[in-house]
Amino acid sequence: MISVRNISKKFGKLDVLKEFNLEFEAGKSYALMGPNGSGKTTLIKIILGMVIPNKGDVIVQGESIKNNFKYRSNIGYMPQIGRYPDNMKIGQLFRMMQDMRPEIKEYDVELMESFGLNQMMDKPMHTLSGGTRQKVSAALAFMFNADILILDEPTAGLDPMAVETLKNKIKKERDSGKLILITSHILSELDELTDQAIYIFEGDIFFNDSVAMLKETTGEERFTTAIARLMEWSLKKKQTKTELSHV
Ligand SMILES: Nc1ncnc2c1ncn2[C@@H]1O[C@H](COP(=O)(O)OP(=O)(O)OP(=O)(O)O)[C@@H](O)[C@H]1O
Fold first, then answer.
1. Which of 76, 80, 111, 197 is least crowded, fewest Cβ atoms below 10 Å from its Cβ?
2. What domain range includes position 128?
């Protein structure tokens, strides 16, 4: 459904992504993990066409994203920080987004309703709490029934009940055949949601395999401990490289 082919991205001298090759399939959920600044958001933004790579291409549903903007209508995106016009009311924002997609006649309002946003349509965006803004972003990402959902730190700032609601929605959409790509630092949450774990470290893909293989490789039964093991290994590898470079 999405092929990331030989993608490299530099910011100045910093090699953020070095020749990345990844395949994302329908009906599966992928957790994109790695330390702060490891390039998760950059990769997501490249897939969304918001950052242009130095090298490589991304193929979404059979088409290259180069000089192509139509593919975006099949991706629901929840940004890490949603930025919206301050004075716009929630209801106006939803209507504006719907007006921008006139080809879509049926909306998925399940999250909007479960989060109670339909009860606060007259609230201006600048008066909303951080968590409520996150709920608006989540409701918008799912509203257009896109085949692909890209969620950047989706549960950050949400209360436990909202987290459960969002997790159930993610599982439901994945099971109905959608492709889900999530980044999060909250590993316990990813545990239930992830089919495939991708761990990025210092510009490279350090691990990319099924959760079963992750557990087998690390010898750890719990997802969170298995990821902690990967982190340890990646840091050790770096230390060894540094030591060797001084020999
Ligand atoms: N527009 C930009 N200009 C310069 N450097 C950038 C830009 N965007 C990102 N970077 C740098 O690229 C690196 C990767 O950033 P990115 O936001 O992709 O990381 P991340 O893995 O999503 O981090 P986090 O876990 O903190 O969200 C960081 O060092 C960041 O400072």
1. 80
2. 2-245
CA separation for the pair 215, 84 (Å, rounded)? 40
What residues does ligand 1 touch, defined as CB less than 6 Å away?
Answer: 11, 14, 16, 34, 36-42
Question: How far is 61 from 3, CA to CA, in rounded Å?
Answer: 9
Yes or no: say if 223 and 191 are a contact pair by the CB < 8 Å rule. Answer: yes
Separation of CA 117 and ligand 1 centre (Å): 31
Distance in angstroms (rounded) separating the CA atoms of residues 16 and 179: 25
Of 135-149, 164-178, 228-242, minimum mean pLDDT range: 228-242
pLDDT at 244: 58
Please give the structure tokens belonging to residue 91: 């209801």
Contact present, 40 and 202 (Cβ < 8 Å): no
Residues recorded for the chain:
247
For residue 80, give the ligand 1 atom closest to its CA. Answer: 27
Task: Please tell me the distance between residue 216's alpha carbon and the centre of ligand 1 in angstroms.
Answer: 31
Q: How many domains does the chain have?
A: 1
